[in-house]
Design goal:
- This protein is mostly helical and about 110 residues long.
- It is about 75% helix and about 0% strand.
- It has 5 helices and no strands.
- Helix 2 packs antiparallel against helix 4, helix 2 packs parallel to helix 5 and helix 4 runs antiparallel to helix 5.
Length: about 110
């Protein structure tokens, strides 16, 4: 007689390798935020209003600084949680929140002069 758990129970149990993989992915995405921000800034500078905004202060975007800071703080907190939690399910959610917050930040950077 076999004492193995059914396939549904085995798939719900996470292994230490899953946690390491999530921490590695979280670290990679956090490290890629800086070059992605530089690239998004260059894309923003190619906008039609960018030259007029930089030279004359006319036609600049009206987004206040709060959404930028909030998305970065949320990404940093989610990164810390993804790196520090021993529970894979929590780490998976934290990684998704980190990825989403970073995407929001990059979208805000690209629409700076819009």
């Amino acid at each position: 007689m076999s004492h193995h758990a059914p396939a549904t129970v085995q798939s719900a149990v996470s292994s230490p390798a899953d946690g390491r993989r999530l921490r590695k992915l979280s670290l990679i995405w956090a490290a890629l935020l800086v070059p992605a921000t530089v690239l998004a800034g260059l894309v923003a500078l190619t906008a039609e209003n960018a030259g007029r905004c930089i030279a004359y202060g006319d036609g600049c975007g009206s987004t206040p600084g709060h959404p930028y800071v909030a998305s970065l703080v949320l990404a940093a907190l989610a990164f810390a949680l993804a790196q520090g939690t021993p529970r894979t399910a929590v780490g998976r959610v934290a990684f998704r929140v980190q990825f989403g917050a970073e995407a929001v930040f990059l979208t805000l950077v690209m629409t700076t002069f819009g």
